[in-house]
């Protein structure tokens, strides 16, 4: 009888200890969950979350530019009709260049963070003029004037805050007045003189520059461009071999300003 009572008492004590252990574990788990929730609630607010500002350079823009340009027009008397020892001459001219531009930028802010991709069209006029007598021949006249130019280029740049460093390149067009003429009586085939002139030339351009945003919607830039309009030829008269091979290249340095159309992100002071 006594042994049975002892066994019952031991079993009751064991059940009581297990219940107390389970209850303590439940209380501990509930406390840990509450502490975790409290930590999430009071660890920090939205101001502590990393803020990625919208890109500064994305958007449509229009602007204007002005500067200086210089060009070299190289000419070769292919069949040496004037009998010169060196049938080549070069016209070097310089003048003012000016016009406008329109373009669109897209600034990457994730995978290619900081890189800016864009397309731009430039258009305007070049003012220079040269008229001389090649080979010191007073009967042979070469005239080169400025004219209208345009280009369409792709742009690739890297933005360092309000500064943008970029390269550009693409198609270019130049429409100017270039004329070769020979006075009357110089050639039998040209009793009243011969002349030839060409108009527009298609080529390519490449360059680069630095652009800086001095206001949310405004930027200023300094840019260099090189133009190459390739080789072309002009024939004074088809009556005899009077072909002149020519090549035109040009360079320009300009300053400009752009206005960004639409709303543009304005940096805010850091939250305290």
Order of helical and strand elements: HEEEEEEEE
Low-confidence stretches: 5-10, 25-30, 35-46
How much strand? over 45%
Number of helix segments? 1
Major beta-sheet overview: 8 strands, antiparallel, barrel
Strand order of the largest sheet: 1-2-3-4-5-6-7-8
Mean pLDDT: 81
- Amino- and carboxy-terminal Cα gap: 79 Å
Characterise the protein shown here:
The chain is an alpha+beta fold. It has two domains: 2-48; 59-260, Beta Barrel (Porin). The protein is built from one helix and eight strands. It has one helix spanning 2-42, and strands spanning 59-77, 88-107, 115-132, 140-160, 163-182, 194-215, 218-235, 243-260. An eight-stranded antiparallel beta barrel has the order 1-2-3-4-5-6-7-8. Strand 6 (194-215) and strand 7 form a beta hairpin. It is elongated, with a radius of gyration of 39 Å. The model is unreliable at 5-10, 25-30 and 35-46 (pLDDT under 50).
Give a brief rundown of this model.
With 272 residues, the chain is α+β, with helices and mostly antiparallel strands. The protein has one helix at 2-42; strands at residues 59-77, 88-107, 115-132, 140-160, 163-182, 194-215, 218-235, 243-260. It has an 8-stranded antiparallel barrel.
